[in-house]
Backbone:
């Protein structure tokens, strides 16, 4: 059996006080000090754990952290004084796209590297905005490939980046057609640069180290090279330098150790690609296209110009940039993917899609919609206990005290998170009966879309759907 | 109660000799509703009544006016007891002219919505639906309208939660409740196997010993006996102590084959193949190590404390023909049993259903993605397979088109939370439903999602921890479920009466009686 992709992980506990979903509020001052709630009602001794936990903290700035919200103490309190509420700190996490649930589940995965598991079914909305308006398929009796969980070992999550030759010209045993360089990455994920507003000098080294540990590729701004404290020989194969328009080239010696580079989109794209390839013929070059109003068309045009990799990027909430009625990344991926198919270009180009990829299912759904792979940035930051509070810049107010992180903490948390994402990718692929992530791309037959299901099931029963 | 066995076929002839010998007398359980008050001291209420003791004159006006007995001052006591807020109807009293708040000459009373309502429940099971279910479990009736609990729909903003019945102002036919039939037939194949009719259009879904406590399983079984319906063992094997309930049990053959033996298959009238489950479509069962106690390990013939993962899918089934082999095998082992095939809801669920029908199944059980009670990866709960609301009409229509609809029973689960969901599922095309979560809620579940954690459920329902499990009394548990079934049945009867339908089978597929709040509700012909 070929060597398996495996990420070694170990738990990395949080540095900051945990923030739980629930808080218990004592709401009338009449407590009998009977300790019924603490001693009897709470089967998990949460009240007591909490006291111990708080005692060990330097500062108390969080409410109840791990209450299960079971209401037992509330309902057994001798005097009916307790009130269980949603912790306001919890509600403040993230924003409307990066919801508190996303932040909390990311924290948990970065801590434990485990797939989040819970009981009692699904409690969320029927469907929702963005990626929540699609489901992945599964198959139980008739499967597209004959593999189940026992076949999981055989699920390959690897994908390729670069131009895939659609045919080979042979002369005897010799391949005479030109072969484009191509590289393989163990899962359909690249690590993007963390947006400038969250930039923290240490972060780059941590991310590069994480890429090495997980076998992934990370984008690094060429202007920042060399990175302090980074072993170049070890890291360069996992780095894809990003060249902003007008940025200076790096030396041949450095470039030659990398496999992928990305350039900012501008009019000189072609000559800059040529320049890079002249220095390092084996390099794959991606062009980064911001998904502004003209972004999708630009991506489609670039494919026509033989660009081998296009990295389309929406804003951090997955929206089209600068539009009043922005499209969502999933729909933009689908549109680009379909146009490329219509132009007969789809297999010539690799599409990396970024922006709004917050959960592992977004990675899978993005690929099902037609991207070859996705790029992430913020989830890794959240993995470091970031609240996405947007107060970066003022080091005193960062609730995550992100300046204080150590290399091992940072690498450990990010690695755990990526490992948990990988395991979840495999879960979804196992359910779908798919054994090769390359085959997921654009396989909308393995996806179900809200609009389509509504029309199929309800259209014929209830007429036309009203526009929101 | 188990008469059906004797009516259509001779029990003696069809039960294998060795099973006949070990047959235990079957448990009897009356259908009577009896009060089963909550286990906890303080009930969670929608409204909270606060009395300012300093202002209060103890004049007793509030006691007089309150229709609900919220205000209690016992004889010889100086002060009032804490208001029994859980009984309070709230501001509706103002309209009815019996509002304590305005009646109090001192303005000493205040009413507010309980802030905990925000912390309890979720979009699919909002707090009011949980509280209403608790009232049903306590009294056997749906809470009176005055409580203002919205338990007909959740807040998930789609599917059942946006579908309503178009009740006519007056039903086309006036029917009395006694004239309305809620029973459904489970064997429509006329293949010489037992005809089994259940008195309510639902049965209890599979919950294994391991995922829930003994008491929970037995409570479910007793409710099934009382209402002449079924409960299911789940995949963890068939406990000896379930023998007195054999006639009302479905045993499961799941991908892990945990605890499946010839003998367990021969004990029951229905055998269910679990291909997949809605809680985690496409993944096998999970039982985390903490819950694999000595008793569980023995039942499942495994090692204590290790996590148990059932494989997915059946490794012997990769086609409908393989599926048929499975069915034939069970039909051979148990000559009287009906076969149920439980599948999840993939894109091709309609094909799977027809395939399964042709393979010889009696019951097609669709388990939609949003339900489930056991432990499941969060990613699977939300993302894999379609919600049941889509799958029911899809499969119903396909079976109709294939001419197979009348030969097979279609049951649906995965998000059936209340009697309205039952009726909606049936109107969309199912014959009946399978329930699970509501039974947990009736036993006191607050939907905290911690069923998989450590010792299991902090409310002592989904646990194998002996000390925890002991906190629930079996008689009480069974009564809570019997009461809930009663409330549900009454509500289903009332829905049928308002629609002028004589039986629940007349409702099947009557989607013309439904409307969807997000649609024009003017049907236009679609291209085929
Ligand atoms: S709600 Fe439950 S878990 Fe939380 S403190 Fe109270 S008893 Fe403990
Ligand atoms: S938590 Fe810290 S790193 Fe995260 S957004 Fe806030 S200030 Fe920035
Ligand atoms: S009506 Fe007002 S003053 Fe009179 S007993 Fe009630 S709360 Fe007190
Ligand atoms: S609001 Fe109505 S039900 Fe509630 S306490 Fe006052 S009178 Fe009683
Ligand atoms: S753990 Fe929570 S959700 Fe699960 S059964 Fe118990 S109370 Fe219900």
Residues:
């Amino acid at each position: 059996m070929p060597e398996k992709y495996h990420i070694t992980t170990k738990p990395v506990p949080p540095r900051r006080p945990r923030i739980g979903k629930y808080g218990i509020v004592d709401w009338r001052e009449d407590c009998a000090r009977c300790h019924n709630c603490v001693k009897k009602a709470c089967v998990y001794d949460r009240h007591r754990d909490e006291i111990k936990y708080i005692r060990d903290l330097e500062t108390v700035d969080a409410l109840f952290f791990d209450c299960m919200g079971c209401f037992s103490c509330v309902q057994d309190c001798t005097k009916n004084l307790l009130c269980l509420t949603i912790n306001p700190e919890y509600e403040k996490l993230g924003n409307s796209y990066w919801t508190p649930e996303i932040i909390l589940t990311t924290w948990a995965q970065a801590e434990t590297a485990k797939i989040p598991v819970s009981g009692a079914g699904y409690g969320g909305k029927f469907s929702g905005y963005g990626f929540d308006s699609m489901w992945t398929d599964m198959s139980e009796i008739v499967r597209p490939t004959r593999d189940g969980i026992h076949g999981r070992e055989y699920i390959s999550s690897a994908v390729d980046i670069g131009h895939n030759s659609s045919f080979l010209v042979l002369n005897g045993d010799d391949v005479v057609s030109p072969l484009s360089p191509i590289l393989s990455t163990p899962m359909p994920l690249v690590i993007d640069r963390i947006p400038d507003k969250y930039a923290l000098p240490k972060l780059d080294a941590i991310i590069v180290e994480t890429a090495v540990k997980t076998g992934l590729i990370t984008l690094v701004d060429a202007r920042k090279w060399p990175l302090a404290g980074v072993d170049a020989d070890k890291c360069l194969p996992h780095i894809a330098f990003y060249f902003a328009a007008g940025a200076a080239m790096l030396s041949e010696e450095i470039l030659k150790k990398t496999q992928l580079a990305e350039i900012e989109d501008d009019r000189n794209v072609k000559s800059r690609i040529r320049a890079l390839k002249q220095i390092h013929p084996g390099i794959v070059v991606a062009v980064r296209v911001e998904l502004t109003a003209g972004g999708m068309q630009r991506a489609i045009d670039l494919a026509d110009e033989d660009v081998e990799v296009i990295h389309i990027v929406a804003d951090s909430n997955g929206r089209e940039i600068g539009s009043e009625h922005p499209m969502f990344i999933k729909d933009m991926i689908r549109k680009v993917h379909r146009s490329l198919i219509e132009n007969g270009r789809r297999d010539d180009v690799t599409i990396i899609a970024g922006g709004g990829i917050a959960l592992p299912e977004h990675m899978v759904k993005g690929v099902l919609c037609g991207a070859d792979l996705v790029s992430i940035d913020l989830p890794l930051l959240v993995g470091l206990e970031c609240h996405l509070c947007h107060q970066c810049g003022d080091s005193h107010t960062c609730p995550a005290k992100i300046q204080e992180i150590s290399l091992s903490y940072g690498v450990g948390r990010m690695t755990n998170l990526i490992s948990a994402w990988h395991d979840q990718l495999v879960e979804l692929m196992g359910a779908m009966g798919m054994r090769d992530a390359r085959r997921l791309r654009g396989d909308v037959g393995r996806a179900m879309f809200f609009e389509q299901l509504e029309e199929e099931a309800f259209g014929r029963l209830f007429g036309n759907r009203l526009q929101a | 109660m188990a008469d059906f066995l004797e009516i259509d076929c001779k029990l003696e002839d069809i039960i294998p000799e060795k099973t006949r010998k070990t047959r235990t007398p079957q448990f009897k359980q009356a259908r009577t509703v009896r009060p089963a008050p909550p286990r906890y001291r303080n009930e969670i209420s929608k409204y909270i009544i606060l009395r300012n003791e300093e202002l209060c004159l103890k004049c007793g006006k509030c006691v007089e006016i309150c229709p609900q007995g919220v205000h209690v001052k016992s004889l010889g006591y100086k002060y009032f007891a804490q208001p029994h807020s859980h009984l309070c109807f709230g501001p509706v009293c103002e309209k009815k002219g019996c509002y304590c708040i305005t009646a109090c000459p001192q303005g000493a009373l205040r009413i507010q919505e309980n802030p905990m309502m925000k912390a309890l429940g979720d979009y699919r099971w909002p707090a009011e639906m949980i509280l209403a279910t608790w009232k049903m479990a306590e009294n056997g009736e749906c809470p009176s309208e005055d409580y203002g609990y919205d338990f007909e729909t959740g807040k998930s903003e789609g599917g059942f939660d946006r579908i309503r019945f178009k009740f006519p102002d007056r039903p086309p036919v006036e029917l009395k409740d006694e004239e309305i039939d809620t029973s459904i037939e489970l064997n429509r194949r006329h293949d010489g196997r037992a005809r089994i009719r259940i008195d309510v259009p639902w049965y209890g879904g599979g919950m294994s010993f391991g995922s829930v406590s003994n008491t929970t399983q037995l409570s479910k079984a007793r409710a099934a006996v009382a209402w002449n319906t079924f409960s299911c063992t789940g995949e963890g094997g068939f406990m000896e102590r379930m023998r007195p309930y054999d006639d009302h049990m479905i045993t499961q053959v799941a991908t892990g084959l945990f605890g499946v033996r010839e003998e367990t298959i021969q004990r029951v009238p229905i055998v269910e193949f679990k291909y997949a489950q809605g809680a985690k479509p496409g993944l096998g069962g999970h039982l985390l190590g903490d819950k694999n106690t000595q008793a569980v390990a023995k039942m499942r013939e495994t090692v204590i404390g290790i996590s148990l993962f059932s494989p997915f899918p059946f490794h012997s089934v990769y086609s409908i023909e393989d599926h048929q082999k499975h069915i034939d095998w069970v039909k051979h082992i148990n000559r009287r049993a009906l076969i149920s095939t439980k599948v999840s809801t993939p894109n091709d669920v309609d094909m799977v259903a027809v395939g399964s029908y042709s393979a010889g199944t009696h019951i097609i059980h669709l388990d939609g993605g949003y339900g489930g009670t056991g432990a499941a990866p969060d990613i699977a709960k939300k993302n894999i397979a379609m919600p049941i609301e889509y799958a029911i009409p899809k499969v119903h229509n396909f079976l109709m088109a294939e001419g197979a609809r009348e030969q097979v029973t279609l049951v649906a689960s995965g998000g059936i939370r209340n009697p309205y969901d039952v009726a909606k599922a049936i109107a969309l095309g199912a014959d009946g439903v399978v329930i699970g979560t509501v039974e947990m809620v009736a036993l006191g579940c607050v939907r905290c999602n911690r069923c998989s954690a450590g010792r299991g459920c902090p409310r002592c329902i989904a646990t194998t921890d002996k000390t925890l499990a002991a906190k629930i009394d079996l008689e009480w548990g069974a009564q809570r479920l019997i009461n809930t079934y009663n409330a549900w049945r009454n509500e289903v009867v009332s829905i049928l009466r308002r629609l002028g339908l004589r039986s629940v089978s007349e409702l099947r597929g009557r989607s013309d009686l439904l409307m969807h709040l997000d649609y024009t509700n003017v049907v236009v012909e679609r291209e085929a």
About this structure: The first strand of chain A starts at residue 22 and ends at 26. The mean pLDDT of chain A is 89. Chain A has two domains: 22-92, 152-452. Chain A touches chain B through 75 residues (CB under 8 Å).
